[in-house]
């Protein structure tokens, strides 16, 4: 949602849903209960990764491969084309060629998330994974985080960082989100919590990770997609 539903009847907000495949649906509940269906410019068989940027007042959808963002403003129409933003990566970590080759063999997920203060991050999650292994067996996850520095001519310059400050990023099959670690007891600053192929936390400061087993009795093939629930005010 572009914002939480307000109490006042005269205020407006937009709800967006990205379905499997290409369908994107947007609606203004205060004005019209009908949905506007838009075709995204690419097929996506993942669960919805549509996110709303409060800073830019746009809906963002990360394209497969993590090289482009598509975006729509709040004045949507059925035949409206999205705006494309190229993601240009800078300051890649210095690693031996063998390490890069190893990462290329891993499964990778790309995630776009915005902090409460309006900072945007691209998170690349690499995970060693084999369908022959039990889904409960934890593999060492690796993440790379890129912070948006500036936008110019439709391109977003993303710089690699291992310091996101007093933030904790939550990645799962649902909507990714970011919170201030100091606002939630028990969270560690400069860390990422992963929930999907593995259930783990990554500390970017110490370059360490903690991996957790699923509860005893969990099927080897979990019949549901794991989600983090974003914090909300009662």
Structural class: mainly beta
Main sheet record: 8 strands, mixed
Strand order of the largest sheet: 4-5-6-7-11-10-9-8
Q: Give the terminus-to-terminus CA distance.
A: 17 Å
User: How many domain regions?
Assistant: 2
Shape: globular
Number of strands: 16
The overall pLDDT, averaged over residues, is 82
Pfam family, one: Beta-prop_KIB1-4
Domain KIB1-4 beta-propeller: 2-195
InterPro entries: KIB1-4_b-propeller
Could you please describe the fold and organization of this structure?
The protein is mainly beta and 234 residues long. It has two domains: 11-88; 91-227, no CATH class. The chain has one helix at residues 97-104, and strands at residues 15-18, 21-28, 32-44, 51-53, 58-62, 68-72, 83-90, 107-114, 120-127, 141-152, 155-161, 167-171, 177-180, 191-195, 199-203, 208-211. The strands form three sheets. The chain has an eight-stranded mixed beta sheet, with no helix packed on it.
